[in-house]
Design brief:
single chain; alpha+beta; Phosphorylase Kinase, domain 1; Aminoglycoside 3'-phosphotransferase, Chain: A, domain 2; 11 helices; about 40% helix; globular
């Protein structure tokens, strides 16, 4: 069997796809193919190579993404994840470059489809971002602004011409953004839901009732974003990664999922930075108003997103004799937390996140 950890096979595979790596390349050598530990929903592998172009060998690194042997925890298909990178390849949004999607059985490692993209050098971790030391204030604010600048690129991209209407549910109008996202996730859930859930049913009903209608425009949204999700180098984001929850809708959806990148900083009773300042900075760059009320709604909606992927994991656990522990953990413990979030929408879980109704 052709295994992804088999360097000799990977070298033959990459030679077969040499034109996708570089139309000017004439050969490739593979030094290593190693699985990375980060990430839960799918497998990520790093491939170290040298590529021969115009008689010169140059080092190059690639990323291979594929589902686990038991499937994927997230219900977003591998093809859709690849398509996002493919559509963004020539845009102003910094991302890894999609090279090819492998579904030819003769070349699928371990008989599983996979896709290959370029590796972007950098680091996902900003050691100073959660610091309370005053000496780090300027760095934290600068990083927050850099992240907002890149979100602005995402939200002002021409999603129609880039092709995103072909893979994502399109709202009928800006006012329909919130309700459309709820409907799209419920429709996706219907593909694999194996049992009824009263908490989900009531939670979805409350979300539709309280869905805000004051979104100013439909934008491409990244989904999970912020610290740990992007590649940084020299104080700049050089690649935006993890597009598994991407959608077309309200940019407030992204603000609800920002991880640590809008720190609240106050010194001597004076506010230096926080959500109001960040929203003002973002508006100056996009002309798009994002309200706290809409952000609160999408924070509440995360219970539905969480239920979606935990139930997807549960469906696979149910159908397998020996499911992986990570699938069982997501189906059981994280699944419970998704129900707690949803219950908070109608007052059944005091102290938990509620909608902005």
């Amino acid at each position: 069997m052709a295994e992804l950890g088999d360097v000799a096979f990977v070298e033959r595979w990459f030679r077969e796809r040499l034109g996708d790596i570089d139309p000017e390349a004439t050969d490739v050598r593979i030094a290593a193919a190693e699985r990375l530990s980060r990430g839960v929903s799918r497998e990520t592998w790093s491939v170290t190579a040298t590529v021969l172009v115009h008689g010169t060998w140059a080092p190059q690194q690639f990323v291979v993404r594929r589902d686990h042997a038991s499937g994927s925890i997230i219900p977003t298909s591998l093809q859709t994840e690849y398509d996002v990178y493919r559509f963004l390849r020539d845009s102003a949004i910094p991302t890894s470059k999609a090279l090819w999607f492998e579904d030819n059985h003769d070349w699928c490692p371990d008989s599983r489809p996979a896709y290959v993209r370029t590796h972007v050098a950098g680091d996902w971790k900003l050691p100073f971002i959660s610091s309370t030391d005053e000496a780090h204030d300027e760095m934290r604010i600068a990083a927050s602004k850099e992240h907002l600048d890149k979100l602005a690129l995402v939200h002002t991209a021409d999603w129609k011409s880039l092709g995103f209407a072909d893979i994502f549910a399109v709202p009928d109008s800006p006012a329909d953004c919130a309700a459309n996202l709820v409907r799209a996730n419920v429709a996706q859930l219907e593909r694999f839901q194996f049992e009824p859930n009263p908490i989900l049913s009531e939670g979805v009903s409350r979300l539709l009732q309280s869905a805000p209608r004051d979104c100013p425009q439909i934008t491409l949204c990244k989904g999970t974003n912020g610290h740990g999700e992007e590649v940084w180098s020299g104080g700049r984001i050089v690649a935006m990664s993890d597009w598994e929850l991407a959608a077309l809708g309200d940019p407030a959806y992204d603000f609800a999922q920002i991880q640590e990148m809008i720190p609240e900083i106050e010194r001597g009773g004076r506010r230096l930075w926080g959500l109001p300042e960040a929203l003002s900075y973002y508006y100056d760059r996009t002309g798009i108003e994002v309200t706290v009320e809409r952000i609160d709604f999408y924070r509440a909606l995360y219970g539905l997103l969480q239920f979606l992927y935990t139930h997807h994991a549960a469906a696979q656990v149910r159908d397998q004799d020996h499911p992986p522990l990570r699938f069982v953990w997501n189906a059981a413990e994280i699944g419970f937390h998704s129900e707690v979030r949803l219950a908070g929408l109608f007052g059944a879980a005091p102290g938990k996140v509620r909608s902005s109704q």
